[in-house]
Design a protein that fits this description.
With 156 residues, the chain is of the alpha/beta class. The chain contains six helices and five strands. The chain is 47% helix and 19% strand. β3, α5 and β4 form a beta-alpha-beta unit.
Length: 156
């Protein structure tokens, strides 16, 4: 009897939750993107876990889709530093992560890996997947792109 009551209560809670989700107000990025012809962004990525990398690649794609859908051209750079550079090899990447890199790269997203981090974390630059470009120092990229008007977003 208790189990049945608990089940009915859980079902009722779920049914109440669904209308609340559908009643959420519409989103509007218009104010932030008003007047922009081009949005430039560099993501400073320091994640070291594959599942977090996959989640962030999906978020980059969603961001690119969202801005593009609002008529704004997007120039996106994803710069990797820290121990996560070890994930950027064919041996370390999951199929899902590899496909996300390929897809974003085909859409014009540039991926960079820091040679300093590769050295410190003992990753072989020769093993990088082709979608990722080796740069001398991602700090140089962050400095250069920000001075060219790119917004920098840290991903930890």
């Amino acid at each position: 009897m208790r189990l049945r009551t608990l089940f009915v209560l859980m079902l009722f809670a779920q049914l109440c939750w669904v209308p609340a989700l559908s009643a959420a107000p519409a989103t509007d990025d218009g104010r932030a993107l008003a007047g922009l012809k081009t949005a430039r962004v560099i993501f400073d990525v320091r994640v070291a876990e594959l599942d977090k990398l996959v989640a962030n690649l999906a978020l980059f794609a969603e961001t690119l889709d969202g801005i593009t859908a609002q008529g704004v051209k997007t120039e996106m750079v994803v710069a990797f530093r820290g121990p996560g550079v070890r994930l950027l090899t064919a041996a370390a990447l999951s199929d899902e992560a590899r496909e996300a890199l390929r897809s974003l790269s085909k859409r014009g997203v540039r991926f960079e890996a820091c040679a300093v981090a590769m050295r410190i974390f003992k990753a072989d630059p020769g093993d990088l997947v082709p979608e990722v470009t080796l740069v001398a120092n991602v700090f140089h990229s962050l400095i250069g792109y920000q001075n060219k008007g790119y917004a920098m977003i840290a991903i930890n």
